[in-house]
């Protein structure tokens, strides 16, 4: 089981997660790399500070469950699973290719460590509710983490699940909203605004926090608070993240939801990450 | 703008008996033997031995007979409120943790509202969730909001999903036990409340994926599912007076179809094949059987007794069953006409 690392260690993990994701994007020439770069710090905290799991036994009953509701973020989770030793690093070369265990959108049947099939948005939180009910029936101490996007807050099913989680007092549920304010047609808040997000969750009976999702220390503290809380309520951590974080020339670009970069830019991106690493 | 399809109607004549479209209207005619809540009682009994069974509903425990289970196993019952999407996804989550959830609602809400959640969270994952739904086809007079006339058409296209349409209380009891033992997702159409008992007269046992020839006959082969099997059994008796000799093949599993039994029965020369179902003509048992027969080069005279491709009227069930041709008397009338 991974041990809680220092902040320096988490920053290094986040760097490597980003690097794995960019290399997968390089192999395919495309991918949801912007989201992966944005959420890398959150994944680093999740996989190298918060979650209990066994890299070689992804079905271990005592594990915390990490659900990727946003199936199109698969590249981000593959990067974290590679870094966590669940998937071998060489396998990233297969990302998105025929018969790969790492398809473009995350599916449970394909990938060890992928708990659910996401992608049809607004499913994860409801499945998490059922898993939390099931874990309580089994008197398990495991948490269910559900990583969702701000876009999913537009799905009505998310709010059915939010109400349900509070009604059933699911204190073993931690939802993480990756709030990068970006969805397919433009900024999420311009498509269907979910603000004020934490107020909404609190009104639904949740314990809500909002942090800079690219501030590793802030994210780590939020995870610790969410796990340690004694109240019988579900918890949400809204993480404001920046698309393409760590690659300045992509961050500043009027970035598309699904980025395609010039072939030479993948190398530039890796170099930019490397430069950021030494800071 | 859609105008009323009815002319203005004034008060009924004094003394005229009014029919009712009440939700609770039973499909059981007066005088027939019934059993109460066969699904609920069977599930409650099974749950004593099968400890993984849990029950969930979306504000319809009383109307899907799940309240019987809830009363007997309150700690294993989850009331999810009026929220069919989380009903299905939470059932998926419970199945992921090793339980066998039985999720109940009305067939309209499962098929129309929660389709994506059944498809992606349950069926694509091949999870052990049983979706048991009341008011299938035309079994309420509440109009299209409650009439699941197209549920089978919707669900037949979903890979992995087994679809069951039982006929009577006996069938429901046996099917409930069978699907509890079966690993994988199941959609079962449910007759709830006082449910007729008719199959006790026949040497019948429910098996998933198996059709059963309930009676044989030389002129007409009825192929039917759900409550239409009781109707065609009655129709077959009535048609004896016309010297029309009818066979009845009951097909309670709509998917996977028992292709061997259907082909064997339909290949017998000289018989008209009449598929009868409590469902729209489109995409249900009738078209499933027709497709099978065409693919296999079996081409009997083929007729369908099913609901029309329309949004149906509100009204009393006996009125509507006559109006849309699925009452016993309408079956008899049509078959007489087709055979002559």
Automatic annotation (TrEMBL), chain A:
This is Transketolase. Residues 17-257 form the Transketolase N-terminal domain. The keyword ATP-binding does not apply. It holds the Pfam family Transketolase_N. Its cofactor is thiamine diphosphate. Keywords: Membrane, Thiamine pyrophosphate, Transmembrane, Transmembrane helix. The chain crosses the membrane at residues 32-53, 65-87, 107-133. It comes from Mesorhizobium loti R88b.
From TrEMBL, chain B:
The keyword Chaperone does not apply. Transmembrane segments: none annotated. InterPro entries: PDH/Transketolase, THDP-binding, Transketo_C/PFOR_II, Transketolase-like_Pyr-bd, Transketolase_C. Residues 32-197 form the Transketolase-like pyrimidine-binding domain. Pfam families: Transket_pyr, Transketolase_C. The keyword Isomerase does not apply. It comes from the Bacteria. Its cofactor is thiamine diphosphate. Keywords: Thiamine pyrophosphate. SUPFAM superfamilies: Thiamin diphosphate-binding fold (THDP-binding), TK C-terminal domain-like. Belongs to the transketolase family. This is PROBABLE TRANSKETOLASE BETA SUBUNIT PROTEIN. The gene is msi083.
């Amino acid at each position: 089981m991974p041990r809680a690392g220092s902040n320096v260690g988490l920053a290094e993990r986040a760097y490597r997660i980003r690097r794995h994701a960019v290399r997968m994007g390089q192999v395919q020439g495309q991918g949801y790399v912007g989201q992966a770069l944005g959420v890398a710090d959150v994944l680093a905290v999740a996989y190298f500070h918060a979650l209990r799991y066994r890299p070689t036994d992804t079905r271990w009953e005592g594990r915390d469950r990490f659900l990727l509701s946003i199936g199109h973020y698969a590249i981000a989770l593959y990067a974290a699973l590679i870094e966590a030793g669940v998937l071998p690093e060489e396998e990233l070369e297969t990302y998105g290719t025929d018969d790969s265990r790492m398809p473009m959108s995350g599916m449970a049947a394909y990938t060890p460590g992928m708990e659910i099939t996401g992608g049809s948005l607004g499913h994860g939180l409801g499945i998490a509710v059922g898993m939390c009910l099931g874990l309580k029936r089994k008197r398990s101490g495991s948490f269910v983490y559900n990583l969702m996007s701000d876009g999913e807050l537009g799905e009505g099913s998310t709010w059915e699940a939010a109400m349900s989680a509070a009604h059933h007092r699911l204190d073993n549920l931690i939802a993480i909203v990756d709030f990068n304010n970006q969805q397919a047609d433009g900024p999420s808040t311009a498509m269907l605004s979910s603000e004020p997000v934490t107020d909404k969750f609190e009104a639904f009976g949740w314990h809500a926090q909002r942090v800079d999702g690219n501030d590793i220390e802030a994210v780590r503290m939020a995870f610790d608070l969410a796990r340690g809380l004694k109240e019988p309520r579900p918890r949400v951590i809204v993480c404001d993240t920046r698309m393409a974080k760590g690659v300045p020339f992509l961050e500043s670009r009027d970035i598309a939801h699904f980025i395609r970069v010039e072939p030479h830019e993948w190398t530039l991106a890796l170099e930019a990450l490397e430069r950021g690493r030494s800071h | 703008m859609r105008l009323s399809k009815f002319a203005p109607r004034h008060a009924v004549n004094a003394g005229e008996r009014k029919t009712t479209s009440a939700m609770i209207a039973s499909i059981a005619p007066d005088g027939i033997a019934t059993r109460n809540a066969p699904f609920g009682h069977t599930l409650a009994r099974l749950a004593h031995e099968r400890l993984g069974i849990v029950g969930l509903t979306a504000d319809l425990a009383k109307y899907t007979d799940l309240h019987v289970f809830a009363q007997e196993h309150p700690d294993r019952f989850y009331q999810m409120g009026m929220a069919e999407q989380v009903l299905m996804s939470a059932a998926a989550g419970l199945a992921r943790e090793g339980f066998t959830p039985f999720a109940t609602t009305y067939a309209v809400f499962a098929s129309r509202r929660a389709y994506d959640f059944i498809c992606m969270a349950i069926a694509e994952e091949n999870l052990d969730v049983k979706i048991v739904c009341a008011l299938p086809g035309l079994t309420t007079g509440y109009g299209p909001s409650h009439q699941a006339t197209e549920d089978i058409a919707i669900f037949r296209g979903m890979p992995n999903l087994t679809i069951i349409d039982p006929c009577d209380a006996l069938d429901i009891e046996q099917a409930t036990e069978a699907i509890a033992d079966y690993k994988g997702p199941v959609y079962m159409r449910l007759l709830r409340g006082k449910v007729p008992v008719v199959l006790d007269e026949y040497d019948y046992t429910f098996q998933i994926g198996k059709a059963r020839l309930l009676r044989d006959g030389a002129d007409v082969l009825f192929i039917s599912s759900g409550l239409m099997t009781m109707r065609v059994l009655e129709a077959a008796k009535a048609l004896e007076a016309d010297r029309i000799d009818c066979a009845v093949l009951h097909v309670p599993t709509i998917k996977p179809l028992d292709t061997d039994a259907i082909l064997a029965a339909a290949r017998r020369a000289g018989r008209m094949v009449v598929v009868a179902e409590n469902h729209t003509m489109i995409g249900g048992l009738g078209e499933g059987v027709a497709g099978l027969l065409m693919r296999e080069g079996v081409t009997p005279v083929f007729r369908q007794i099913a609901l029309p491709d329309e949004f149906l009227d509100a009204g009393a069930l006996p009125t509507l069953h006559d109006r849309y041709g699925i009452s016993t008397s309408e079956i008899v009338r049509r078959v007489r006409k087709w055979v002559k």
